[in-house]
Amino acid sequence: MNIPILNRLLDERFFAHRHRSTSTAGVVTAEAALLLSAYRFYIDHVVSWDLVAVLATFVVCKLTLMTWYYLTD
Predict the structure, then answer these.
(1) pLDDT digits (tens, 9 = 90+) for 8-43
(2) Where are the alpha helices (DSSP H) in the chain?
(3) What are the sequence ranges of the domains in the chain?
């Protein structure tokens, strides 16, 4: 499907910026979850398993994608 208006608005730069911003947002979110988990562990002496699950999901997803891109590039 070819939509002329979208072709002018959504070029390669748009997708490059979207990729970089999404990657940065994912890393910042994982760091925030790590800091909040560490705070709860060291200050409140409670293990936040929900935050550990978020961090594990991030790590598994990141390593899987890195391996996929390495093998298919």
Answers:
(1) 667 777 777 778 888 888 889 989 999 999 999 999
(2) 4-9, 12-42, 49-72
(3) 13-72
